[in-house]
Amino acid sequence: MTTPVHGVTPALYLTGTVHLVPLLTDAHSGAVPWTVAVIVAVFAELVVALLVRRRRRVPESSSSA
User: Fold this and answer.
1) Top mean-pLDDT range of 12-16, 33-37, 57-61
2) Domain spans of the chain?
3) Following CA atoms 40, 42, 46, 47 in sequence, which dihedral angle do they give, to the nearest 10 degrees?
4) How many whole angstroms separate alpha carbon 42 and alpha carbon 33?
5) 30 DSSP assignment
6) For residue 33, what pLDDT is reported?
7) Higher pLDDT, 50 or 3
């Protein structure tokens, strides 16, 4: 993995070593399935839109004045 470092004079070839230490060692977290969450949200939005559209329709009256 490479990353640019700003404020450093360019060299022909320069390497460095980085040691990463985890902040949480015994924590367990679940991954959020974003694809499933988006599909459920879109489906829920479609259902709500259909219900609102159905309620807003004005039934046509059979009597004419």
Assistant:
1) 33-37
2) 33-57
3) 20
4) 15
5) P
6) 83
7) 50
Predicted TM-score (pTM) above 0.85: no
Q: Looking at residue 31, what is its pLDDT?
A: 75
Helix, strand or coil for residue 19?
coil
Phi, psi torsion values for 46, nearest 5 degrees: -65, -40
HSE, CB side, 13 Å, CA atoms: give it for residue 33. 5
Residue carrying the six token digits 């694809």: 35
Alpha-carbon dihedral angle through residues 9, 10, 12, 13, given to the nearest 10 degrees: 80
Alpha carbon separation from 8 to 5, 14, 16, 19, 37 (Å, rounded): 6, 11, 13, 20, 43
Q: How far is CA 60 from the centre of its chain?
A: 43
pLDDT mean over 47-51: 94
